[in-house]
Design goal:
This protein has helices spanning about 15-25, 35-45, 65-70, 90-100, 110-125, 165-175, 180-190, 200-210; strands spanning about 5-10, 30-35, 50-55, 80-85, 105, 135-140, 145, 150-155, 155-160, 180, 215-220, 225. It is an alpha/beta fold. The longest helix is centred in the last third of the chain and has 15 residues, at about 200-210.
Length: about 230
């Protein structure tokens, strides 16, 4: 099929790169490759990919540092970032989500499962996971949440959030004082991911509070989270 979407594959293992590239190309994606994080930064700026697949463990610069540096650049704020990892340690996933990862894919790579996940990720859009009846800009409490620009404002102060952080805030703020269960949040924000856990939500809530303050999102113990309008 014809597909103009671009994907950058970053891994120091040539056989992994070849396997992924072959399957992506067969699916119709335009593929770019890089052997490590340092090269990936250069290739990403030149190719402007829609999605970047990053191995976690690489020489020169690992995937987590690469993702952090890319997310710091305005042009990659909303680019999908997916980590490849053979590591099962929880801290590795938490570190990845801290720097803005959208998903994880475990090694060894299973081509059909990989393509299913990539196709699903690229079909996702923040608007698709949020009630269509909501507007593109929310003005709530002292915040302005602009879905078109993925920016949050408080007076003259501007907050730049990672994609999932923004989607999470918009979801909660779209229905103030409503308690969203963890299951509802997972379904709305991470519907197609099989690796996301409750801990992932906690990480994103913590990062959100670090950026905009801890007075907006309230934890309802044993249930979930809500945007506290009257606090």
């Amino acid at each position: 099929m014809a597909n103009k979407q671009k994907i950058l594959v970053v891994d120091d293992e040539a056989d992994i790169v070849e396997l992924i590239s072959y399957n992506l190309t067969k699916e119709g994606y335009q593929v770019f490759i890089a052997p490590n994080g340092k090269v990936a930064l250069k290739v990403a700026k030149e190719s402007n990919p829609d999605l970047i697949i990053l191995d976690v463990m690489m020489p020169e610069m690992d995937g987590i540092e690469t993702c952090r540096l890319l997310r710091a650049l305005p042009e990659f704020k909303q680019t999908f970032m997916v980590f490849l990892t053979a590591r099962s340690e929880e801290y590795s996933e938490i570190a990845g989500f801290h720097v803005g990862a959208d998903d994880y894919i475990a090694k060894p790579i299973k081509p059909r499962a990989l393509m299913s996940r990539i196709n699903a990720i690229l079909r996702r859009n923040a608007a698709d996971n949020i009630d269509d009846s909501t507007t593109d800009k929310l003005e709530i409490s002292d915040l302005v949440i602009d879905r078109d620009s993925f920016l949050v404002y408080r007076g003259e102060e501007k907050f730049v959030l990672a994609k999932k952080e923004f989607e999470l805030l918009y979801l909660l703020a779209s229905k103030p004082n409503k308690v969203f269960s963890r299951e509802q949040i997972l379904k709305a924000i991470w519907e197609d991911s099989v690796v996301v856990t409750n801990r992932t939500i906690d990480v994103h809530i913590r990062k959100l509070r670090e950026k905009i303050g801890d007075t907006y999102v309230t934890t309802v113990k044993g249930v979930g989270y809500k945007f506290e309008l009257d606090k």
